[in-house]
Write a sequence for this structure.
């Protein structure tokens, strides 16, 4: 079986985010970073070259192998921010998700991936509640 390509590494999340050229997107990225940092009470770590993860988690493949992963994370993609709420589908957080504002999901992305274009389209209080609910559920697991 192929080895997992996206691994935690020593690269600086702040340096990565400071490389975002658009000022609004860079500012939004730092806002998401702070919200996730507070929700998880964890320092951000780079996973691969473009994902920032918080906390430690793992998942088990169908062959029984366990892979290290993050509890929650995000990636500032060109078109949008991908928010990774690992281990749970977005509908498990229906109450908070309905209050978010303008977001999207993709059935093909598996569990817990939300997409937002910018923070101005999102209710920050609802996003904070969503992150906190996710962390609470992950700790109960």
């Amino acid at each position: 079986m192929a080895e997992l390509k996206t691994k935690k590494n020593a690269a600086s999340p702040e340096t990565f985010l400071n490389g975002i050229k658009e000022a609004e997107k860079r500012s939004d990225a730092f806002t998401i970073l702070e919200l996730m940092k507070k929700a998880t009470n964890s320092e951000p770590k780079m996973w691969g070259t473009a994902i920032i993860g918080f906390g430690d988690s793992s998942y088990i493949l169908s062959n029984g192998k366990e892979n290290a992963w993050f509890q929650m994370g995000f990636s500032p993609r060109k078109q949008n921010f991908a928010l990774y709420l690992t281990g749970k589908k977005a509908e498990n957080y229906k109450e908070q998700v309905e209050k978010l504002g303008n977001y999207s999901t993709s059935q093909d992305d598996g569990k817990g991936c939300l997409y937002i274009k910018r923070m101005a389209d999102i209710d920050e209080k609802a996003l904070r509640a969503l992150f906190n609910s996710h962390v609470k559920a992950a700790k109960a697991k």
